[in-house]
Amino acid sequence: MTPVKSLLRKLRGGPGGALSDQAGAFVEAFDLEGATEGPLAGLTFGAKDIFDVAGRRTGCGNPDWAATQKAASGHAAAVAACLKAGALLRGKTHTDELAYSLMGANSHYGTPRNPAAPDRLPGGSSSGSAAATAAGSVTFALGSDTGGSVRVPGSFCGLYGLRTTHGRVPVEGMVPLAPSFDVVGWFAVNTWVMAAVAEVLDSAAPPAIPRPRLFYAEDAWALADASTRAALRPAVDRLAEILGPAEPLQLADSSLADWREVFRVCQAAEAWRVHGEWITANTPVFGPGVSERFAAASRITREEDVAAQARREVVRQRLCGLLGDDAVVILPTCPGPAPRRDADAPTLEAYRAAALQLLCPAGLGGLPQLTIPAGQIAGAPVGLSLLGSAGSDRTLLDIASRLELCMMLPYAVM
C-alpha cells in the first residue's frame, strides 16, 4: 500500500486505527479488505445488515430472523463490487426490522445516534448506514430504498443519499422487502464520493444531460412546513440560476395522499408475499409499527392488490409523460426535520404518513431520486430532492455537484 493510501485509510478509519462508532451505527464491526487497486481504493464503507457478507449471518434488524438464517455463502452484488473497486468494508450497520420502517428506531438493538442532530431520530430503515457516514466512521455506506429508506435518513442526517433507478443496480444478495420497489442506494457527505460509487455500481448508466428541464412540484411543496420551505429556498434559487427557472406543476393527477395509498397497498402485498410464510412459521417478535404493518399486510385481499397495481400503472404513465427523458422535479425530501428521539408513536406515525406522500412517486414510477443536504432548521438538517426519469441517475448527481460548488462559492459563475 502506498503512503498516501495508508494515510487515507488511517484518516478514514481503516487498518491501523480502531473503528470509531460513537453513533452506535454498527451491529457488527470488522475489517474486510478490498482489492489493492481500484477507483474506490483508500475509501471505507459500511453495509446495511440486509446485504450478505460471506461467512456472516444477515440479521435484518430482528433477532428472530437472524436466528433462523445460515451464514451467507457469498457477498451481495453491491458489496462485492465495492470491494473489487478497492474499498474497505468496516462492518454491517443497523437497520429497522426487515427494512419495514422509516424512523430508524429499533426496539431490539436500539437507535443509532443522529450525528447531525443528536436529539432527533436518524431515519430508517438504513439508519446505521446514514449515522456511520454522518459521523465520519466511513466514507460512504450502502443502504436500500423501498419507500424512502435512503432518502429519509439522508435528509435527517444531512447527507447526500441516492435512490437509484429500479433495476439498474443488482440486488442479488440483498434481502428483499417489496421487490418491485427495492433498490440499492448509498450515502456520502459530498458529491464526488457519490459519483465514484455510482461509476462502480452502475458503470453503464446513461450520461448526464447538460441542461435538463426543471419543474417545481407545487403539490409536494405544499406538504412541507413553512420553515422547511424557507430553509430550502436558497438552494431552489441557486438551481434556477444553474438550470433556468423551474416551471410549476402538479405532480399527482388526483392527490399525493391517493398515491401514498396506492403505494401502501402495493408494497404491503408484496412484503407479505415475500415474508408472510416465514412470519407465520416463526411468529417473530416485532417492535411497534413494524408489527402493525405486517399484520395489515396479511389482510390485503387479492382484489385490493390488483386494483392498486392497475392504479400504479396509471401513476407510472403520468410520471413518464411529465418527465419525458430530460426533466427533473425539485421537491422537499421530507415535510420537516427529523422527529425528536422521544416522540410518541402517534407523532411518528403521522410524520411517516406525511413523508410517504413526498416519497411514493419515485417508488411507484421506479425512478431515481437524490436527496441533497440543503438547509437547516434550528440546527436540524432538511433535504432537497431531485426526482428524475428512469436512468437519469447521472444527471441528478451532476446537478448536485454543480449545486454543491455553487453553494460553496456563492459568486461562482455557472
Describe this entry's structure for a reader.
The protein is α/β, with parallel strands linked by helices and 414 residues long. It has helices at 3-11, 63-67, 77-84, 127-135, 151-157, 191-201, 218-221, 226-243, 256-282, 290-298, 302-323, 345-365, 393-408; strands at residues 26-32, 44-48, 88-93, 140-145, 160-163, 183-188, 213-217, 247-249, 327-332, 369-377, 380-388. An eleven-stranded mixed beta sheet has the order 1-3-2-4-6-5-10-11-9-7-8, sandwiched between helices. Strand 10 (369-377) and strand 11 (380-388) form a beta hairpin. It starts with a helix and ends in a 6-residue tail after the last helix. 53% of the residues are buried. Residues 1-16 have low confidence and may be disordered.
Q: How many DSSP E strands?
A: 11
Percentage of residues in strands: 15-25%
Question: Measured on Cα atoms, how large is the radius of gyration?
Answer: 20 Å
Unreliable stretches covering 5 or more consecutive residues: 1-16
| Average predicted local confidence, pLDDT | 94
SSE ordering: HEEHHEHEHEEHEHHEHHHEHEEH
Strand line-up across the major sheet: 1-3-2-4-6-5-10-11-9-7-8
- If helices are DSSP runs of H or I spanning 4 or more residues, what is the number of helices? 13
Structural class: alpha/beta
Approximate helicity band:
40-55%
Gap from first CA to last CA? 39 Å
Shape assignment: globular
Largest sheet: 11 strands, mixed
